[in-house]
Design a protein that fits this description.
Maltoporin, Chain A, single chain, five-stranded mixed sheet, about 450 residues
């Protein structure tokens, strides 16, 4: 027995030597190709900061939308506000202000960046549920030469899947607590030798993590559904046409908010008294110290005076279409990108963010009553022509020209009810005015590289 025990280290050493001899000297790394510079290139060879999340990584990490993408992308954050319009993509600490965002959003190379009339965000298309995504590319740093007017801090690009060479049928189910449900299915494959189709469907639901104190309604949740159809035609080896139509309907509940009263009083500086409408006896209330932990707290929101129920929240219907034509010639490739997007959205929620329940938690006794209630209709049309060289030497270049027209109209809803709230001592009001924004963008761009 003792002899056998002493021989184990020697046997283990021989076995380890055999295993090491059969392993490759260097582990192989899968090459990742991205199109951050308007052409397919190896990620490892790009002279720019790019984070690429491929389909496998998206599935393993449970990535469903841009909020999930930013969790796995250093230097990128998504600041979610109270509605669909009020979302800010922050790259390397630079946050957009009211109106046009400073980060571009693209799907299959087509710009979907929109403007906002009413809030500090910039685009309602920023944080959709991901429909049949093959890869997400996050490009950090100024990229206006590549992506145009909105890419001052960077860009987010979604690459959708093509029809497969063989018939493919996939389905997935993701379920969890708080009513989490994420169902998706896809079917695709060749119809003829040169034509293929792919259809993808999605249905999702989440009840949110909080219940509203007055009515018990869920807060912070959402639900939606969508379809995505891709058709690809390759009549000859040098010509390709790809068309995509996607439609989605999403609805989001109001966000959970808590009222934190100020706990610090300061006197305005003497210079402030020289300004008009500033009284010498006026004081300013601020909140100082640590923000209270929301765990265990109950959020209270003002109900809709018309129904006595919580406001409906936000809704968004999106139609996104695109056509990409590719022609290969000697020395390079011509590509045409055509896109049209139509977005119909509405937002209806409590807007005073200052709700204080009475002792019985049956009504709001704060002096407020502001609501946010407006409808936004947005259309974007874009056309780009591009040529990417494929020369035998070390110099390569890409040139192109594009046009984008956008229209955004926001109408404040005016329900038939008095402006004075139904609760004594409270005055009602509505935030945000109606407005229309139109933008036209022309661009010419070029980039070269030497390797």
């Amino acid at each position: 027995m003792q002899t056998s025990i002493r021989s184990l280290p020697a046997v283990a050493a021989v076995a380890l030597a055999i295993v090491l001899a059969t392993e490759p000297a260097v582990a192989e790394i899968d090459e990742v190709f991205v199109s951050a510079r308007k052409r397919e290139e190896k990620l490892q060879e790009l002279p720019m900061s790019v984070t690429a999340l491929e389909e496998g990584a998206l599935q393993r990490r449970g990535v469903r939308n841009l909020a999930d993408v930013t969790r796995y992308t250093p230097g990128v954050n998504l600041d979610n506000g109270f509605g669909l319009n009020d979302q800010r993509l922050v790259i390397r600490g630079l946050s957009p202000s009211r109106g046009r965002p400073n980060s571009a959003v693209l799907v299959d190379g087509i710009d979907l960046t929109t403007e906002s009339v009413t809030t500090a965000g910039g685009t309602m298309l920023l944080n959709q549920q991901l429909l049949d995504i093959e890869r997400v590319e996050v490009i950090k740093g100024p990229q206006s030469a590549l992506y145009g007017r909105a890419a001052f801090t960077g860009a987010i690009q979604y690459i959708t899947k093509d029809p497969t060479d063989e018939l493919e049928l996939t389905a997935g189910v993701d379920m969890g607590e708080f009513g989490r449900r994420y169902l998706k299915a896809a079917v695709g494959g060749p119809v003829t030798d040169s034509f293929g189709l792919r259809l993808n469907g999605l249905n999702w639901n989440h009840d949110g993590f909080y219940d509203e104190g007055f009515t018990g309604a869920s807060l912070g949740g959402g639900r939606g559904k969508g379809l995505n159809l891709v058709a690809k035609l390759d009549p000859v080896d040098t010509l390709s046409a790809r068309a995509r139509v996607a439609y989605s309907e999403d609805q989001y509940d109001q966000q959970a908010t808590f009222y934190n009263p100020f706990n610090t009083i300061i006197d305005p500086p003497p210079a402030a008294f020289e300004l008009p409408n500033i009284s010498a006896t006026q004081v300013v209330g601020l909140f100082g110290g640590d923000v209270p932990d929301p765990n265990g707290r109950v959020p209270f929101l003002t109900a809709d005076p018309n129904t006595g129920q919580p406001y409906t929240g936000s809704e968004q219907d999106v139609l996104n279409t695109s056509l990409v034509l590719t022609l290969d010639i000697t020395g390079g490739q011509f590509t045409s990108y055509t896109g049209f997007t139509d977005v119909d959205s509405s937002q209806n929620f409590d807007g005073d963010f200052d709700v204080r329940p009475n002792e019985d938690a049956t009504m709001d006794i704060a002096r407020g009553g502001t609501e946010i209630n407006f409808h936004t209709d947005t259309q974007i049309f874009s056309q780009e022509l591009r040529f990417a060289s494929d020369l035998s030497g070390p110099v390569q270049f890409t040139v192109g020209a594009g046009f984008l027209a956008g229209r955004c109209r926001t109408d404040r809803n005016r329900p038939e009810r008095p402006r004075i709230s139904i609760w004594p001592g409270r005055c009602g009001s509505r935030l945000f005015q109606s407005g229309i924004c139109r933008s036209y963008s022309y661009s010419q761009r070029g980039i070269s590289r030497y390797r």
